[in-house]
Amino acid sequence: MWIVPEAEIAGLLGRQESFDAVEAVFAAMARGDAYNFPVIRESIGHADALYGFKSGFDRTGLSLGLKSGGYWPGNEARGLTNHQSTVFLFDADTGQAKAVVGGNLLTALRTAAASAVSIKHLARADARVLGMIGAGHQSAFQLRAAVEQRDFEKIVGWNLHPEMLSRLDDVANEVGLPFEAVSLDELGAQSDVIISITSSFAPSLRDAQVRPGTHLACMGTDTKGKQEVEASLLTRSRVFTDEIAQSITIGEAQHAVGQGLIDAEQITEIGAVINGTQAGRQTAKDITLFDGTGVGLQDLAVASAVVDLAIEQGIAIKVAL
Ligand code: NAD
């Protein structure tokens, strides 16, 4: 089997490869060629840690395996990242272990790729202002991937902790776009595309703050109880997701569905839009909302791509199990 260390991922997998892998696996999910197994996530009663695994199988790409890891709040004090993950791939023909891959950077790349895929397929072609809600670790990856999808001219950002906004300013500089820190009212009034990537358990963005024609990628809500936007916004939106089962249980739609504001049947898998079997945006006035919950198949897709590249470039380490 092969090992691809975390430190090698950055040199192997770029945004385009991540985008292609995630777009392809969303399409495979909607065709019924790939499916996620039920997610396990538990508080383990040690080190305040949340641990779990996400797994699945893509019959088209032959990616079989799981991402295992979670959140260790004490890690930062040890000089480690709080979120930790590792991907394990298995040979779909034999069940033998195929690869162990560092999953931390891959998680950021595949999450950013998901919102970028949603922008490609759902945002207005003339979108010019990108609004960012959240300025944590993931936000920089989100921003870099998003600006590649439209001819954005400006980035506006809001964060509950304003001192963190320098991260967005730095990335905006890196990609050559002006950045302005704004209130949520201003953010909604100016933005054509809004990405939210926070760990909030209460809505930041209000329904009334979002104007017609906006595309939203709600990427932070991946757990029961988390919420980034007011539930009533989903009643005005055409709602899309990576996987409906996750969207209504751990995604942003859990609140609107739980309060009876929308039905699961009103939510469309983005893969169906990619495949052309369901409509995406229909008018310039539509509000489109992508509920990006994060599925195991995304991890397997980018991990498979990185293993192929690592073997090709002689970077993967071969070990006998
Ligand atoms: P981080 O800890 O680096 O940053 C957290 C962000 O949330 C910061 O901007 C912080 O200011 C903001 N925040 C914290 N409490 C808030 C509140 N009460 N209201 C509004 N904002 C608040 O985290 P990160 O690594 O950037 O991840 C952000 C979120 O994305 C997390 O919830 C994480 O679980 C989620 N995530 C989702 C996916 C997915 O596939 N959907 C993948 C990775 C991470």
What is the CATH class name of the largest domain? Alpha Beta
**Largest sheet, described in full?**
8 strands, mixed
Number of domains: 2
DSSP strand content: 25-35%
Taking all residues together, what is the mean pLDDT? 97
Q: Structural class per helix/strand content?
A: alpha/beta
Small molecules in complex = nicotinamide-adenine-dinucleotide
Total strands? 18
The fourth-level CATH homologous superfamily of the largest domain is NAD(P)-binding Rossmann-like Domain
Distance between the termini: 7 Å
- Indicate the percent of residues in helices: 25-40%
Figure out the total of helices: 11
Would you mind describing this structure in some detail?
Helices cover about 35% and strands about 25% of the residues. The mean pLDDT is about 95. Helix 2 crosses helix 11 and helix 3 packs across helix 4. The chain folds into 2 domains: about 1-105 and about 295-320, 2-Layer Sandwich (ornithine cyclodeaminase, domain 1); about 125-295, NAD(P)-binding Rossmann-like Domain (Rossmann fold, 3-Layer(aba) Sandwich). Strand 4 (about 50-60) and strand 5 (about 65-70) form a beta hairpin. With about 325 residues, it is of the alpha/beta class. Strands 1, 2, 3, 4, 5, 6, 7 and 18 form an 8-stranded mixed β-sheet that branches. An 8-stranded parallel β-sheet has the order 10-9-8-11-13-17-15-16, sandwiched between helices. It has a two-stranded parallel ribbon with strand order 12-14. Bound molecules: nicotinamide-adenine-dinucleotide (NAD). Nicotinamide-adenine-dinucleotide binds near residues 107, 136, 137 and 198. This is Ornithine cyclodeaminase family protein.
